[in-house]
Amino acid sequence: MRVRVLYFAGLRQATGTGEEILTIRDGVSAGDLWKTLESRHADLVPWRARLKIAVNEEFASEETPLQEGDVVALLPPVSGGSGRARIERAPLNAQRLAAEITGHGAGACVTFTGIVRPDEKGTPIRSLTYEIYPGMAEKKLEAVCDETLARFPIREIRIGHRHGEIPAGEAALAIAVASERREAAFEACRFAVERLKEIVPIWKIAPEEPGRSQTLPQKTENSENR
C-alpha cells in the first residue's frame, strides 16, 4: 500500500523534501513507518524522542495502524480557521479581535500580542517565517479556543496567528478574551498562549544564512496590550 509522508520545519530540512510517497507492506504501524524513514534519512534519527506523529490530521501513537492512502505528518516540537480561531497572512490586531467580543455583559477584556523581535539570541533579524501544517493547524487552534472556554468562566475568545514571512516588529499572534471579571480573562489568556504552543503545529524558522538553516522553538515573542 502507499502512504503520503509530510515533513515540516526541521524535519523538512533534515530530509531535503516537504513530502514523499512511500510504498509499504500492509499492517504497518506509524512506529514501523518511522523506522523505515530513519533508514532512508539518517538525519531524522536525532528527532525521534521529540517529534509527534499525525495521521490524517489527527495525533496518533506509534501503534496506530496505517491504511492505503493515509497522510502521515511528522511534526517537530511546537512550542495557530474560522469562527473563534483564524490563521492568515494579513497583519493582526488584537484590538480588532477584542471589538468582536466586548459587550453583552463582559466587564473585562484582556488582549495579548506576540511580536517578532528584531533579534534572536543576540543575532539581528529582519523577519521570521512561520510554517504551518494546513488543515490540522486550524483544527487545533480552534480546539484551544474550545478548551479555554470549557476551563475558565469567560464569555468569549478570539485567537489569530499569522503564517509566512513576518517582519520584525509586527504581530505573529493575537488573542482576546472577554469575561465578566478580569481574573478569569487574565488566566484564560495565559492558558491559551501556553496551550497553543503545545498542540498547534506552527513553527518559526530562522532566516537562512549561507551554509546554515535553523528551526527555532515555537515561542512567540510577546508584549501585552494594556
Structure characterization notes:
The protein has 226 residues and is of the alpha+beta class. The chain has two domains: 2-75, Roll (Ubiquitin-like (UB roll)), CATH 3.10.20; 85-216, Alpha-Beta Complex (Aldehyde Oxidoreductase, domain 3). It is built from five helices and 15 strands. The strands form four sheets. Strands 2-1-5-3-4 form a five-stranded mixed β-sheet. Strands 6-11-13-7 form a four-stranded mixed β-sheet, with helices on both faces. Strand 8 and strand 9 form a beta hairpin. The termini are far apart. 36% of the residues are buried. Mean pLDDT is 84; it is low at 209-226.
Short description:
The protein has 226 residues and is an alpha+beta fold.
Strand order of the largest sheet: 2-1-5-3-4
> What are the segments in which pLDDT stays under 50 over at least 5 consecutive residues?
209-226
Quantity of strands, as a count: 15
The percent range for helix content is 25-40%
Number of domains: 2
**What is CATH's topology name of the largest domain?**
Aldehyde Oxidoreductase, domain 3
Structural class: alpha+beta
